[in-house]
């Protein structure tokens, strides 16, 4: 069982004091916050491609690296990183071949129906309450457009200082190559 394997490994990890090599403070050494996708290919690749080590950055991950609401948990984490954890720069990093660019809300809902998690009545009640599951489950059509939309949301947020650069990058999940989408320094310089 996976849980037992994890607990056994953790016991050895703690007993052998392997944690010592990862000691850091809660403040990011590189004074940055990264918003990215939860894609399993990026777990180790993204930090290596950015030359990040334990304690260097605050990394926030979710499906597609999407900031879906200006006052949701992702944005709250960014604001906290800026004001409470001394992050001076924000990096929005999407990736090519992201599953959220091929999301299938209808298929996801059907899978939930097939598993008996929800019924058509529940879906109708959600729709009646104004919740559009298709829209909520949809990712994006184009990763660059998604990155730019996230940057606009962050840059124009009333709680984000205008002098904080918000960068946009797209990473190749196979090679780690970064493509520059938006240079936040240029945007900050123009707005001064």
TrEMBL record:
Matches recorded under Pfam families: Pro_CA
Cofactor: Zn(2+)
SUPFAM superfamilies for the chain: beta-carbonic anhydrase, cab (SSF53056)
Assigned EC number: 4.2.1.1
Catalytic reaction annotation: hydrogencarbonate + H(+) = CO2 + H2O
Chain sites annotated for binding Zn(2+): 37, 39, 95, 98
UniProt remark on cofactor binding: Binds 1 zinc ion per subunit.
Entries under CDD domains matching the protein: beta_CA_cladeD
Coiled coil: none
This protein's UniProt keywords: Metal-binding, Zinc
Gene Ontology MF terms: carbonate dehydratase activity; zinc ion binding
Family: Belongs to the beta-class carbonic anhydrase family.
Protein name, as recorded: carbonic anhydrase
Gene source species: Gottfriedia solisilvae
Upper lineage: Bacteria, Bacillati, Bacillota, Bacilli, Bacillales
């Amino acid at each position: 069982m996976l849980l037992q394997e994890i607990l056994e490994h953790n016991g050895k990890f703690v007993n052998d004091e392997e944690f010592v090599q990862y000691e850091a403070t809660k403040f990011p050494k590189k004074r940055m916050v990264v918003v990215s996708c939860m894609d399993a290919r990026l777990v180790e690749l993204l930090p290596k491609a950015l030359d990040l080590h334990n304690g260097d950055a605050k990394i926030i991950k979710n499906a597609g690296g999407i900031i879906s609401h200006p006052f949701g948990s992702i944005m709250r984490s960014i604001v906290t990183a800026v004001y409470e954890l001394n992050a001076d720069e924000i990096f929005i990093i999407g990736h090519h071949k992201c599953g959220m660019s091929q999301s299938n809300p209808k298929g996801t809902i059907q899978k939930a129906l097939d598993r008996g998690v929800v019924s058509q009545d529940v879906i109708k009640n959600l729709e009646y309450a104004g919740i559009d599951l298709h829209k909520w489950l949809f990712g994006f059509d184009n990763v660059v457009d998604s990155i730019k939309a996230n940057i606009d949301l962050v840059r124009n947020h009333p709680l984000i200082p205008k002098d904080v650069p918000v960068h946009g990058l797209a990473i190749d999940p196979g090679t780690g190559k970064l493509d520059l989408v938006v240079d936040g320094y240029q945007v900050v310089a123009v707005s001064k």
